[in-house]
Structures are given as structure tokens and as C-alpha cells.
Amino acid sequence: MRAALIAIPLLLLAACEGGGDPVEQAMRDASAERHAATVKDGEVSGPAHPVGHAAATGAGNAAFAASETSMHTKMAAASGDTVDEAYIAKMIAHHEGALEMAQVALAQSTDPEIRRMAQAVVDTQTREIAEMRAWKPAAAN
């Protein structure tokens, strides 16, 4: 059961962007590898996102701790009566978390490539949030 709860956000993340941006693909691949390392024979061996864990220490991780915790809390609380409604609610929370993290990077990074990627996240995720908020269920036939 716990493995399924961890797998849901990862499936949502995979559905988030199907595009061919190599940076995004590398991030998805790394996330899948981290997830695979936490799950063994269907059992969860540790948290998917180790908040406060020794591996997550340092100023870089601390800069994102609040936005990461907020995103996971909002995703867990987001719900819907149907799979479609739940998907939209959880993806909006996920994208809002991405926006928060991108804002941290824009405020604190001096690397031009990181700033470019963070701005791209802001631009695309803002558009996608608006698209998801505008979504209405298809009429039942």
C-alpha cells in the first residue's frame, strides 16, 4: 500500500511533461532511479523524499525544504471524486510546487543556465496550471 502511495506522485510527475527536453528527461530518469532505490520487492525501504535526512542537508537543500514540504502536503491533500478530478487537483499542486522551487532558483542562483531552466519552468508550469484550472469534465454519454 505504501509503495502505491509513493508511486502515484511519480506517475503524476511522468505525466506532467511528455516532451523531448533532454534536461526534463534527465530529471525524470533521476527521479525514477531514486524511487527504485526506495522500493524493494514491493516494500518501501525509506521515504521517497527524505526531508531532514542526512542526504538532504546543506544550504542548497535547505533553500528548497519549505517549498518541497508544501508541495508534498498539498499533493497529498488534493483530491477529486473521479480519477480525472483527482489528477487535475494533484497536478495543480505539483505544478505550484515546481513554481515555488523555480522562484527559489531565480532568487538565489547566479548560474545563467539554471536561471534559464527555472524561468522555463515558470513559463510552462504557469501556462499548464491555467489549462488545468480551465478543464471541465467531458459530458457523460
Secondary-structure map with pairings?
Elements: H1 2-16, H2 22-38, E1 39-40, E2 43-44, H3 59-77, H4 83-108, H5 112-134
Antiparallel strand pairs: 1-2
Helix pairs in contact: 1-2, 1-4, 3-4, 4-5
Task: Describe the fold and architecture.
The protein is mostly helical and 141 residues long. 71% of the residues lie in helices and 3% in strands. The chain has 5 helices and 2 strands; from the N terminus they run ααββααα. A two-stranded antiparallel sheet has the order 1-2. β1 (39-40) and β2 (43-44) form a beta hairpin. α1 packs antiparallel against α2, α3 runs antiparallel to α4 and α4 (83-108) packs antiparallel against α5 (112-134). The radius of gyration is 16 Å and the shape is globular. The N and C termini lie far apart (34 Å). The model is unreliable at 14-18 and 38-54 (pLDDT under 50).
- Principal-axes geometry comes out as globular
The strand count comes to 2
- Structural class comes to mainly alpha
**Beta-strand proportion:** under 5%
How do you describe this structure in short?
With 141 residues, the chain is mainly α.
What labels describe this entry?
single chain, 141 residues, mainly alpha, two-stranded antiparallel ribbon, 71% helix
